[in-house]
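Feature request, filed as a ticket because there's no other form

It would be nice if the structure record came with a short human-readable summary line next to the tokens. Right now we just get the raw output. Example of a typical job, pasted below so the devs can see what we mean:
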Amino acid sequence: MIVRIAYLEGNVKPADLERFDAFIASEVVPLMKRFPGVRSVRVMRAQTIEENGQPLHMTFESVYDSVEAMNHAFTFPVRQELKAKMAQIMPLFTGRLFHITQHLIADDAVQPNPEEPAAASTVPKPAG
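Raw output as currently delivered:
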């Protein structure tokens, strides 16, 4: 499997975050899902970044069966539609957009251990 990742390195002003996120979810993600042969898409916004970490504001992932499948998908008009849609929201973003294509080595779901308490039950309830 091949994972094509787009990174937004930089930031969005706090006052624009809600608008930016809503646009990505409602306008960009549906276009990502229209690429022929795409197996899954994920978009994530950084919650925290370590002290010396790169300011990767947002990550977009698209999974394909092969590089050939990905390259074939990129020949369809939806790629230009996606670029045009991103151009509409990018004025709210300060930084750069770059891509990395990666070979997926492992993607294993972890089943909950029945011997461990559920995570929610380990959080203390507030007094009151």
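Something like this underneath would help us a lot:
The CA atoms of residues 6 and 99 lie 4 Å apart.
Residues 2-105 form a domain with the Alpha-Beta Plaits fold (CATH 3.30.70.100).
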